[in-house]
Amino acid sequence: MTPSVATGPRPIAAFDRIGEENAFAVLARAGALAAQGKDIINLGIGQPDFPTPAHIVEAAVRAMRDGHHGYTPSNGIPELREAVADNLANRYNTSVDAESVVIVPGGKVTMFAAILMSGEPGAEILYPDPGFPIYRSMIEFTGATPVPVPIREANDFAFSASETLSLITPATRLLIINSPANPCGGVTPRREMDALVAGLANHPHVAILSDEIYDQMIYDGEQHVSLLSYPEIRDRLILLNGWSKTYAMTGWRLGYAVWPPSFLDAIRKLGVNCWSCVNAPSQFAALEAITGPQDAVHGMMAAFAERREVVVARLNSIPGVSCVTPRGAFYAFPNIQGTGWQAKALANALLEDAGVATIGGPDFGIHGEGYLRISYANSLENIERAIDRIQAFLA
Length: 395
Ligand code: PLP
Prior knowledge:
CATH superfamily of the largest domain: Type I PLP-dependent aspartate aminotransferase-like (Major domain)
Helix content: 40-55%
Structural class: alpha/beta
Bound molecules: pyridoxal-5'-phosphate
Order of helices and strands: HHEHHEHEHEHEHEEEHHHEHEEEH
CATH architecture of the largest domain: 3-Layer(aba) Sandwich
């Protein structure tokens, strides 16, 4: 039984600084309200509403039947690391050594590891704000100083190379870049990436974590610009990616990263000390996902594209709300300043009173005040119903 009053030894102080991801709290609250019989539409959580494609599930089942029940090499099965290296090399017209690819239990694990390896008191880590909340949480956990890089609506929620570079100091250890981005749906164009990489030449002490988990979720025929395609920063680039979003595999806990040689031994040892390896059947599923047919990925993206049009048009028709068209991922980040509401209060009221789960912008950083995150990973019908409710509530 868990005692109701916390007595006894406590975790070290660093654990008082570790944060959370409010999307999970909203998911739990939405579940609790639904269990009370309320009709809740969830536009809060960031996961595709599609099942994992059947041929990928089949590959995992086959692996289990074929006896893949034991440990694998800690950095992943060789055929999967080779396939990831080939896949990246082909998509980004570069070369990738399979030895630098590390398979991990979820994209988040690479983020955790990279920040852990770079953060300590006195170090500064730059991260996008609004941005994925775990960046700041982990930076604070390590005792490093979090330095937010503002992500601005006026810039279509893309990174500004000049603003990012202006925040680098001799104490900067790591720069976190995320494009396409959560929560704003921004995509940083090639000219800004070029300028960023050119400017980084003046700061060779800075490592880069490029979170490209939404790399294939991009609209209007635009091409994703991967930082992997810049040879001049390869010796300090950690590329984060995975299967969760592209292949609707959030619950499988699968991710991969390409690490520079100077970090490779540290991530290998961290894996040995912590997760040993990713569960074997999942790795065979991951192999099928990237080497098998991609029709399901294209089908999901076509659905997201259609929903994006509806979400943006409908949100822009609500008085006091304006919404930039997201260029990637599956999130809209409407500006709600004209409604007179504070963002978190509005998200809360929408959930409790209108039965629509969204996330308040401040859950993604101080620059998120005045915005809501709407995940359109839900059916068109539910999206229409949810926006009807938001509209009625605000009227
Ligand atoms: N990076 C970003 C920007 C994300 O939005 C997410 C998940 O929401 C992740 C990483 C983590 O992905 P995974 O579920 O594979 O750990």
